[in-house]
Design goal:
The relative contact order is 0.19. It is built from three helices and two strands; from the N terminus they run ααββα. The longest helix is centred in the C-terminal third of the chain and has 15 residues, at 58-72. The protein has a two-stranded antiparallel sheet. Helix content is 37%, strand content 8%. It is elongated, with a radius of gyration of 18 Å. By secondary structure, the chain is mainly alpha-helical. It has helices at residues 2-6, 16-22, 58-72, and strands at residues 32-34, 45-47.
Length: 73
């Protein structure tokens, strides 16, 4: 980073960890989870709007978002 500043290069910062966790789910895909321990209510589930770390969809959703961002620049 100091070399980029010294040579007056343009740079961008990307928080990959946060991007991985916050990737949106693909259109048309619905993912439901049970409520966490302590919040359980019989017959209730949560519909996810974003990918969750540890979810099987997370890496693919993150890669699609990364690819789209790289192609847009």
């Amino acid at each position: 980073m100091s070399l980029a500043v010294t040579l007056c290069f343009k740079s961008r910062h990307v928080d990959y960890t946060n991007a991985f966790i916050q990737a949106t789910l693909p259109p048309g895909e619905e993912v439901y989870i049970f409520l966490p321990r302590g919040w359980e209510q019989p017959g209730k589930v949560l519909k996810l709007k974003k990918s969750v770390y540890g979810l099987a969809h997370a890496p693919l959703a993150w890669f699609k978002k990364l690819k789209q961002g790289l192609e847009d620049t």
